[in-house]
Amino acid sequence: MKLRRDIFQAISDPTRRAILVLLTSQAMTAGAIAENFDAARPTISKHIQILNECDLVEANQQGREIYYELKIEKMKEIDKWLEQFRKIWENRFDQLDNLLSTLKNKKNEK
């Protein structure tokens, strides 16, 4: 039985999020990715496999090496989902700004 994974399961792990950040600047081999972590290479390879299964990264063979790169379209799915929360927080920050301005004005009036 094949496990069904989604992008939110993939980004729930801090190591996988760190791998995604690494891949924002350039395509990298599994070995190059693993050099950035204290974990064993097979552990990092498993993380890469999960990211690949979720379509967040794409594997491209170049000669003997396999390079992994970020799939921007899937990242946009995450951003779209987060947008609803971003609006809530922006509204709350606006309310806080208004409150702080009011308090500052009251203090200056005294």
UniProtKB/TrEMBL annotation:
Taxonomy, superkingdom:
Bacteria
Instruction: Alphabetically list the UniProt keywords.
Output: DNA-binding
Q: Which PANTHER family match?
A: TRANSCRIPTIONAL REGULATORY PROTEIN
NCBIfam families assigned to the protein according to its UniProt record, in alphabetical order: HTH_metalloreg
Origin organism is Arenibacter palladensis
Q: Name one GO molecular function term.
A: DNA binding
Q: What is the name of the protein in this document?
A: DNA-binding transcriptional regulator, ArsR family
InterPro entries recorded for this chain?
A: ArsR-like_HTH, HTH_ArsR_DNA-bd_dom, WH-like_DNA-bd_sf, WH_DNA-bd_sf
Question: In what residue span(s) does the HTH arsR-type domain sit?
Answer: 1-90
